[in-house]
Structure formats: C-alpha cells, structure tokens
Fold this protein.
Amino acid sequence: MKETNSKKLFSQKGIAIATFFGGPLAAGYLIRQNFISLGKEREGLVSIILGIVITTVIFSLLFMLPDNIVDKIPNQLLPAIYTAIIYAIVESVQGKNLKSHK
C-alpha cells in the first residue's frame, strides 16, 4: 500500500497478489478503494459491481462444467489468467495515478 498526501493507494502488484488469492471480488474491492482515494466514487462503484459479477460468472461456469473437465484444469491456471487480466486493467485504468503517487 502506498501513502501519499494522506491518501492510501494499493499498488498494482498488491492488487495482483490479492486477486490471485482472493479472486476478482478482492480486485474489485481494492480498485474501488483506490478510486475512492482518488475522488472517483462512481468508478469505484463500477469496479466493485464488476468484481461481484465476474466472480459470480466464474463460479457459475465452474459449477456447470462436468467434473471430468474440471479435474483436468490445473489448480493455478484460472487464478493466473484472471490475475493477469486484472493486472493489465489496473495498468490501463489507474497506472498513471499509481506512478505519480509513487
């Protein structure tokens, strides 16, 4: 977590680690907190809603897949994929702000 001008911002790497272990919902929450610190409450609301929706979609898809297919998927593959996607999204959406506050 970075502190600048009494505002706390979660770093891109911190968000990626939380995403890997906590899923898209954790990413949505941390990105939301960054947006709130930057005074962008609407974007924060959108990020938490997207985190909830994406988490729901992932769980729904996994529950609908047959067990023999789910068993063939390596355990870290899905978290690695959505972590990489979130990392790129944070870079494009908040990258400039995070670098300027660093």
